[in-house]
Amino acid sequence: RNQRIKLDKAPMSTNKLLRKLAKHSLWLGIGFVTGMTFVGYFSPIRELCIEFFTGQADGWAYFWVGFFTLATYGNAGWLREQVCIYMCPYARFQSVMFDKDTLIVSYDPRRGEVRGPRKKDVDYKAKGLGDCIDCTMCVQVCPTGIDIRDGLQVECIGCAACIDACD
């Protein structure tokens, strides 16, 4: 995610153009395979593939393959984490399925606060500082872009990438 953000902010270059072109071509290819597979559930897939590429398929087959190709490309290739945050119900379902035994990914303010940079030769515990150095790596690796230090949020999918990044 970090590298993608840096690439997006960089000025246009041949490298950037080739990477973007390859990425979007790959997503369109994945979308096309998804569309063909989905339509293949309702129509014999072998005949569909032959008819599709020879121009003999039904108009509805072209429509639905195109529809699912563009839907997959739009959701996974273009919108990415916005789909997770705003459209995907997984995190919302997860938040209502809690019970007393549910493992919850959370920030421990008793351990992490007070945040701030550290020097190697200074005992930060004696200065009253917590373990969090405020590097924001937890936010940068989060697929939904939340700051776990702000408390439990409905967008959290419990992947624990923030825990792995904080070392």
From TrEMBL:
Protein name: Cytochrome c oxidase accessory protein CcoG
InterPro entries xref list: 4Fe4S_Fe-S-bd (IPR017896), 4Fe4S_Fe_S_CS (IPR017900), Electron_Trans/Redox (IPR051684), Helical_ferredxn (IPR009051)
Domain 4Fe-4S ferredoxin-type: from-to ranges: 118-151
PANTHER family referenced in this protein's UniProt entry, alphabetically: FERREDOXIN-TYPE PROTEIN NAPH (PTHR30176)
Organism domain of life: Bacteria
UniProt source species: Pseudomonas brassicae
Molecular functions (GO terms): 4 iron, 4 sulfur cluster binding; metal ion binding
The keyword DNA-binding is annotated on this UniProt entry: no
Keyword Electron transport: yes
A cellular component term, taken from the record's GO annotations: plasma membrane
Transmembrane parts of this sequence: 21-41, 61-79
Keywords: 4Fe-4S, Electron transport, Iron, Iron-sulfur, Membrane, Metal-binding, Transmembrane, Transmembrane helix, Transport
